[in-house]
Design goal:
The structure is a homodimer. Helix content of chain A is about 45%, strand content about 20%. Chain A has about 450 residues and is an alpha+beta fold. In chain A, the strands form 3 sheets. Chain A has an 8-stranded mixed β-sheet with strand order 1-5-6-11-10-9-7-8. The first copy, chain A, is globular and about 95 Å long. At the A-B interface, helix 1, strand 1, strand 2, strand 3 and helix 4 of A face helix 1, strand 1, strand 2, strand 3 and helix 4 of B.
Chain lengths: ~450, ~450
C-alpha cells in the first residue's frame, strides 16, 4: 500500500493530552454541578433515523445534517424502481431526489431533538418531572471557521414535565454555580417569549412575531437603525416600529422596568403573563445571592422558534466571544413525536467557547495532577527487575507512576520526564539497591535527596 | 407535521440514567488505572477520511464502514463526468463504483487506525515513547445480534515508540488492576506471534502462517478435529499437520512447557526469540503477585494479522462470554501513514462485555451516590421561597439535592422520590418554618425526625 499523508476531515479536531485534561476539567465541573441539582445522565446514539432529524431545524438545518449512506447495495432501491418508473434515471443524478433512496440515517445535529425522541420512546419507564443531562458531540456540515467546528460538544441540562418556574430559577443557579467554579465572571440575560408575543400583539403585528424577534435579537450586533430597517423590510408598519422604540430602549433598574413594561403591555394577556413570570423568577434569584449578574434583556430571542416562556443567555463579562450558555422553556417539543402538552425547560453550555474563555483568561488550573507524578529512570535489566515491585507499591498508594521502558541514555530519559512535566524522578542504581533506598530528584527545584520508599510515599500523600 | 413513532437505528442504543451510572463506574475505574500507569488521554474525531480507513480492516472491514454522504450537491462530480465519460450512467447505478464519488468520509471503525494516523500527523509534537489511552465509541455496519452493536465503546491503551518488554508486563498489570477493582476474576492468556511464525517455519509452511493461526485460534470453539480439517483444506501438508499436534496440545506447567517448546523450535531463530520474549514477560509477572491467573496459550492468535510479538487475551473466569480484553504488539502500524519502524503494544477493554459480566455477577456497587440524596417536598409558594436558600446550603455542602418543582399531592411527590431512589426527604410546612427546623424522613426505614439544618448536614457528611 502506498504511503498516505495523514489528515482529518476539515472542521474536525484531534484532542491532545493537554487539551483533554483541560476539557475534562470543564466537563467534570459541569457534570458535578448538574448532579448536585438532581439531574441524571443519559446518552443517545450518534446516528438517528433521518425521519427523527429532518424538519426539526428548518431548511438550513436539513441541509447541514451529515447523512449516512445505507449499508450494502444502497442503490438497490433505485434500480428496482427503474422498470416501474421512467424517472429513475433523473432521480439517480439529482442529489436531493436521490438522497432519501440511499440514506436513512444521519448524525445528530443537537441534543434537544434526540432528547425529545428519547422521552417519547421511553415515556413508560420515565418518572416525570424528568431531570436529565447529556454531554455528547454533535455534527453540523457548516462551513468551518475560527471557533466553529463540524464536530463539537454540547452540555445540555433539561427538566421535562413540570411547569413550575422553580425550574428556571434552578437552571440560573446552575449557570451561576458552574461559572463561579470555573472562575468566569458571567452576565445572565433573561427574557420571556410571552413578553415578545405581547409586544407584537400590542403593536398590532401578532403574526409577525418571528420577524420581529429575529430583527431585535440583532440589536447589539447591528444597532438600532439597522434593526428598524430590517423591521421595515419585513413589512412591519411605520406605526408599529414607532411603538416598538420605547420597548427596545427600556432603561433603568429592574424595579423600574417591570412596572413600565406592565403598563405598556396591559392590554395583552400573554404579555402581562410574561412579565409576571419573569418577575417571579427574578424575585427568587434575588434571595439566592448569586455571584453572577442577571438582567432583563428584551432584545434576547435566540433566533429559535420553539421557546415559549423564559429565554436565557449567558455571556462572559471579560471577553467578547458571544454566548457561552443559553436556553429556555419550550412547551411542546415532544408533540411531533406523539406526546403533546409536555412542558420543558433547559440550557446548553458551549464547551468549546468556555475552553477558549478559560484559555484567554489563563484560568486553567495546574495540570500536574492528571499526568504522571513519579518516573523511575531505567538503568538496565537488573535495576528494572528491582524497580517493578517498588513501582507497584507507589501506584497502590494512588500515585501515578511509570518507569522509562528502555535503558536509554540518562539525558533522553530526563528530557522525557521534563516534556511530560513529571515532577519527581527516582534513580535506583547499584548503591541504592544495596542500601535499599531511593534517590529522588525534584524536577522543579533540581534538588536531590536519598529517602526510604515508605517515607517518599508518606511525604507525597501528606 | 405528522406524528412519528420514535425509534433509533437498529444496533444502536439509548443509555438511561441507571445504565449511564454503571457504565461510568466501569469507565472511571479503567481511566483511573490507565492514569496510574502514566498513560494520557487523547480523542480523535468520529469522522475520518475514507482514505485513512479503507484497506486497513480487510475486505470485510471495508464493507462494514459507515460512509458519510458528501455535503451539498454530492452528485456534482458524477454529473460533470457525464460529458467526458459515457460510463457515468452505469457508475450512477452501481453502489461500489458510485461510492467514491459521493462519499469521502467514514465513521471510525476502531481506535487503533485513528491512533496510528494521530501519531504520524502529530509526530513533531509527541515525545516518544508515547503512552496514550482513548475511550470512545466506534461504529460497524455489522448485523446486530445479542451483545453485538453497531455503535459500541472501546477503551484502548497503547504505548508506541518502545521495544521494551516492560511495556507488555505493564499492560498485563493494568489488566490485573482493572479487573481486580471491578471484582471480576480474570484469566490472562498470553502468546507470541513469533512463536506462531516459528511453528510455521519448523513444519515447513512459513508462507501459510495466517491460515495456520486462523485455524488453531478456533481450537476452543470447534475442537481439534475440525481444526485439523481446516488446516487440511487450506493445503497444509499431512506431515505438517502431524508435526503441529504436539505443539497445539502442549501440556504441563510453564516451567515444563518452555523447555519443551524451545526444544521443538530450536531450528527456528524467530521461534526461539518468541519463546524467550514470553519467558521474560512471565518472569517479571511472577515477581508482581498478580491477582489474575496468567497462562501461555499457543492457540491464541486473535485473528489479526498485524500483531508481531506478544498477543494477549482476557476472559472472565466465572462467565462464558468470550474475550473481555485483548491486544498485542505490532511493529509497523504507522508505516502505512509514512512513519515506518515504530513499534507499539496495546490492549483494548470491551466495555459492553464487561458491563454484561458485572450485571450477570451482580457486582455493580450501590448506585445511590450518583443520584439525588435529598429531596424537599413542595408545599406551595411560601414554603418554596423558604426552602430555596436551605437547598442552596445543602448543595454547598456537596450533597446532591433537589426540590420537587410543583406543589403536587404528597403521594405523587413521595412516589417520585421512591422511583428515583432518593434516600432522604425533607418536609417543611408551617410548623417547621416557625421553629426553624426540618422534618427529615428516611425513605429506607420510614423513620421521621425533627432536626436542625446544620445538624442534618453534619450527620450527612460524617
Amino acid at each position: 500500500m502506498a504511503t498516505q499523508k495523514p489528515s482529518i476531515p476539515k472542521g474536525t479536531r484531534d484532542f491532545s493530552p493537554i487539551e483533554m485534561v483541560r476539557r475534562n476539567y470543564i466537563f467534570d465541573i459541569i457534570k458535578n454541578v448538574f448532579q448536585k441539582y438532581g439531574y441524571l445522565p443519559i446518552e443517545t446514539p450518534a446516528m438517528e433515523n433521518l425521519s427523527t432529524l429532518l424538519g426539526k431545524y428548518g431548511e438550513e438545518g436539513d441541509r447541514l445534517l451529515f447523512k449516512i449512506l445505507n449499508s450494502g447495495d444502497y442503490l438497490q432501491k433505485i434500480r428496482s424502481q427503474k422498470s416501474e418508473d421512467s424517472s429513475s434515471k433523473s432521480i439517480a443524478l439529482d442529489s436531493n431526489k436521490l438522497a432519501p433512496f440511499i440514506s436513512e440515517k444521519g448524525l445528530r445535529y443537537d441534543l434537544t431533538v434526540p432528547f425529545a425522541r428519547y422521552v417519547v420512546q421511553h415515556r413508560n419507564e420515565i418518572t416525570f418531572p424528568f431531570k436529565r443531562y447529556q454531554i455528547q458531540p454533535v455534527w453540523r456540515a457548516d462551513r468551518p471557521q475560527k471557533g466553529r467546528y463540524r464536530e463539537f460538544f454540547q452540555c445540555d441540562v433539561d427538566v421535562i414535565g413540570s411547569n413550575s418556574l422553580i425550574n428556571e430559577v434552578e437552571l440560573v443557579q446552575i449557570i451561576d454555580d458552574v461559572f463561579d467554579r470555573l472562575g468566569i465572571v458571567s452576565v445572565i440575560k433573561i427574557n420571556n417569549r410571552k413578553i415578545l408575543s405581547g409586544i407584537a400583539e400590542i403593536i398590532g403585528e401578532a403574526d409577525k412575531i418571528t420577524d420581529i424577534t429575529v430583527a431585535i435579537d440583532k440589536l447589539e450586533k447591528i444597532g438600532l437603525e439597522k434593526v428598524n430597517e430590517e423591521l421595515n423590510q419585513k413589512g412591519i408598519s411605520k406605526k408599529a416600529i414607532k411603538q416598538l422604540q420605547p420597548i427596545i430602549n427600556l432603561e433603568g433598574k429592574l424595579k423600574e422596568k417591570f412596572p413600565k413594561l406592565l403598563e405598556i403591555l396591559k392590554e395583552s394577556e400573554i404579555g402581562v403573563k410574561g412579565v409576571e413570570e419573569t418577575m417571579q423568577i427574578m424575585r427568587h434569584l434575588k434571595d439566592l445571592n448569586l455571584k453572577s449578574k442577571f438582567k432583563l434583556d428584551l432584545t434576547l430571542a435566540r433566533g429559535l422558534n420553539y421557546y415559549t416562556g423564559a429565554i436565557i443567555e449567558v455571556i462572559a463579562k471579560d471577553i467578547n466571544i458571544g454566548s457561552i450558555c443559553g436556553g429556555g422553556r419550550y412547551d411542546d417539543l415532544t408533540g411531533i413525536f406523539g406526546l403533546p402538552d409536555v412542558s420543558g425547560v433547559g440550557i446548553s453550555f458551549g464547551a468549546d467557547r468556555i475552553y477558549d474563555v478559560l484559555k484567554e483568561l489563563n484560568r486553567f488550573p495546574d495540570d500536574t495532577k492528571a499526568t504522571t507524578q513519579v518516573m523511575f529512570v531505567n538503568f538496565g535489566e537488573k535495576e528494572e527487575k528491582y524497580c517493578l515491585p517498588l513501582l507497584s507499591q507507589i501506584r497502590k498508594a494512588g500515585i501515578n507512576a511509570e518507569i522509562y521502558p528502555d535503558a536509554m541514555k540518562m539525558k533522553k530519559q530526563m528530557s522525557y520526564a521534563n516534556t511530560k512535566k513529571i515532577p519527581f524522578v527516582i534513580l535506583i542504581g547499584e548503591n541504592e539497591m544495596k542500601d535499599n533506598i531511593l534517590t529522588v530528584k525534584n524536577m522543579n527545584t533540581g534538588e536531590q535527596v536519598k529517602i526510604l520508599l515508605s517515607e517518599f510515599i508518606n511525604d507525597f500523600i501528606a
